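[User] At your convenience, examine this fold.
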Amino acid sequence: MTPLADRLRPETLDDVVGQRHLLAPGKPLRRIIDGGNIPNMIFYGPSGVGKTTVARIIAHNSGMKLHKLNGTSAATADIREVIADTDTLDGRNGVLLYLDEIQYLNKKQQQSLLEYIENGQITLIASTTENPYFYIYNAILSRSAVFEFKTVSAEDIVPAVNRAFHVMSQDMGVKISVRKGAAEHIARSCGGDVRKSVSCAELCVLGAENNGEEITVTLEEAKELAQRSNMHYDRDGDSHYDILSALQKSIRGSDENAAIHYAARLIESGDIISLCRRLLVIAAEDIGLAYPQAIPIVKACVDSALQLGLPEARIPLANAVILLATAPKSNSAYMAINTALEDIRTTECGDIPRQLQNKHYDGEDAAVKGQFYKYPHDYPNHYVEQQYLPDPIKDRVYYKYGDNKSEQAAYAYNFKIKGK
C-alpha cells in the first residue's frame, strides 16, 4: 500500500505546506514556475519540507519528457539512458531530469550531464539535503539557480496533520477522534518535517484502540510516538556541523542558555564524542589565556563524560558548557599562532639567530666566533634583553595581550621585568 505521506502529496503549488518565501504569489521561484521557462535549478534544505513535491509539480506541468533518478541508487548507465533520450522523438521538447539527492553522485557522473545542461537538451531539477556549495560540482552550480527550502513551522504543519487524520478516517471507514493538543504536538515534535508529521499521525491511528466504530488519538499517545522525532540530525551532514557551530558561537557570545540547548541536541542524539572534541577546542580558542584553568577543567569534564557514558555523561558536559559560556573570553593565543603560521607560509623568515642554535662551535668560515647566548637565570628578574627572532622579522609582534584580568597581570609582570 502507498504510504499516506505519498498519497497526500500536493498536486499544485498552492497546496504545498510552507515555503511561502519561495512559492507565494510574486516570490522568485513562483514567478519562474508560472512563467513556464524552467531553468536548471537546485533545491536544498532538510528532509520533508517540499523539495521533491515542488520538483514533481514543475515536471508534471513542463511538457518535457520526464526522467527521475535518485543519487543514492543511480548508476552511470541510468545517466546514459537520460542522455540518449535527448535524440528521440519523445525528447523533441526537451528532457527534464529530476535528480533527487544529487550529492550522492560522484564528480564524473555529474560532469557527464554538463554538456547537455549547457546546450539546453536537458533541464536539471536537483534536490539535496546538504549544502550544494560543498557537495555539487561547481560547473553545474554555476549553470543553476539555487533555492533554499526551510523548515516548516508547526503552525503550517497542523492542517496537514488534520488532513492525514481525515483521509485515514475515510480509508478505514471509521470515525477518528483526535483529542485536544494531539495534532499540535505532532506538528511541533517532528522538527519541521511535513512527511514525518504525516507518518506520525498515521502511526497514532494504527496504534490506537479501534472498537470498529471510533478510533481515539490521545495527546499521551502522540507524545509517545513523536518523542524522538523532533530533530534533524546526521553525524556526517550539515545539521551536525550547524549544531557544533551554533554551540561554539553561543559559548563565544557568552549565552549559556543557548549553549546548553545546542549541547542538549548533541547529547540527545548520542553524539558526545563530537561535543567533547568541540569543548576542548573552545576552551583553548575562545577562553584561552583569559582563564587558563578552563583547559584542564574542561579536559577533566570530558574524561569523566567518556568514562561514564550516557546518560550520566550529560552532567560533567553540562558543567563544561556553562563554565565556558560564563568564563571571560580571549582569543589572543589563537590569533598569535595563526599570525605566526601565516608568516612561516608566506614570508622569508631567515635563519635562527646564532645564539639560539643548538651548536657550540663555529666553522672556519665564521666571521665572528662564539655563540654569545645570555642565560636569563643569571640576571636579575631572570631576564636579559637579547634577540630571539630571526633578523628579517626581529621586530614582529604576534601576541597582543587581552584586556582581561589574567592577561593584564601577565602584561604588568613583563612590563616590570623588562623595565619598559
Remarks:
- The beta strands are 41-44, 65-70, 95-100, 122-128, 145-148, 175-178, 214-217.
- The longest strand covers residues 122-128.
